[in-house]
Design brief:
Length: 235
C-alpha cells in the first residue's frame, strides 16, 4: 500500500483540486492522510468528505512526521496541498521507484503560470539533476520514500524552519539510494511567486541553499517562513 501524507493549514481552495487529481489516477492501492495544523476554514470538511484520515499536524516537518505515525503503507508519498498530479503519476512513480531501486525519490517540478515560472522550473530541475550525485535534493512538494528508510532516519527534523526536505534527503543519501524519477512531474502552484514576487522567492531559496551548504540546516527563522502565508491566494 501507498500512504499519501498531506500537511495542511487553511487549504480549502487547493486541497480539493489535489484530491481530485489523486482520484483520477489509474492506481487505487493507497490511503490519504491529512495532517492539519488547526485550520479555521473548510479544510477538515474537505478532507473528511473525501474519506481522508485526519491527524493533528503542525509545521510541514512535524505534520509529515505525525502523518507517518499512522501510515499503513510500506511506501510514503509526501505532497504539498497546492500541487496537482499528472494522469498516471502514481503508476509511473511507483514503477520507476522500483525499477531504479530507489529508497528516496524526488520529481521534476513544473510551476503553473507564465513563461518566467516555467523557466524557473527548468532551471531548478536542471540544478537538482546535476547536483544530485554530491548534493541531494528532495522537494517536499512531492517526496517518495520507503517507510523503513524514513523510520531509520527518524523522519524530518522538526527543529528546521525551512528546507527540511532537502536536509532529509542529505541524511538519507548517507544510508540509502536517492534519485530523481523523470518519467513524470508534479505541477506546483505559483501562488508564492504571485504574492512575494519571483525575484524575492528565488533569492530566498538561493540563500537558503547556501546556508545549507556552508552553515547547515536553517533552524532559526531568518527567512521569515510562514506556513499559511500563501493559502488565501486560491487557484
Amino acid at each position: 500500500m501507498l500512504s499519501i501524507i498531506i500537511p495542511t493549514l487553511n487549504e480549502e481552495g487547493y486541497l480539493p483540486l489535489l484530491l481530485e487529481s489523486i482520484k483520477k489516477q489509474n492506481f487505487d492501492d493507497y490511503e490519504i492522510i491529512v495532517a492539519d495544523n488547526r485550520s479555521t476554514d473548510e479544510t477538515l470538511e474537505v478532507a473528511k468528505k473525501n474519506n481522508c484520515t485526519v491527524v493533528l499536524g503542525g509545521l510541514p516537518g512535524k505534520a509529515r512526521n505525525e502523518g507517518s505515525k499512522i501510515a499503513k503503507g510500506d511506501v510514503l508519498l509526501f505532497l504539498d496541498a497546492d500541487v496537482l498530479l499528472k494522469p498516471n503519476f502514481l503508476t509511473n512513480a511507483l514503477r520507476d521507484f522500483k525499477n531504479q531501486k530507489l529508497d528516496v525519490a524526488t520529481f521534476p517540478l513544473l510551476l503553473t503560470g507564465n513563461v518566467i515560472n516555467k523557466k524557473i522550473s527548468h532551471f531548478y530541475n536542471y540544478w537538482v539533476a546535476i547536483s544530485q550525485p554530491f548534493l541531494a535534493h528532495a522537494f517536499g512538494a512531492a517526496l517518495l520514500t520507503r517507510k523503513d528508510i524514513y523510520e531509520k532516519l527518524g523522519g524530518f527534523n522538526e527543529e528546521i524552519k525551512l528546507a527540511e526536505d532537502h536536509e532529509f534527503s542529505r541524511r538519507a543519501k548517507k544510508i540509502a539510494r536517492c534519485g530523481i524519477i523523470k518519467s513524470t512531474c508534479v505541477m506546483v502552484s505559483d501562488r508564492r511567486f504571485k504574492i512575494d514576487g519571483w525575484f524575492s522567492v528565488v533569492i530566498r531559496y538561493f540563500l537558503c541553499e547556501l546556508h545549507l551548504i556552508f552553515l547547515g540546516p536553517v533552524k532559526s527563522n531568518i527567512f521569515n517562513y510562514k506556513f499559511n502565508h500563501y493559502s488565501k491566494n486560491k487557484k
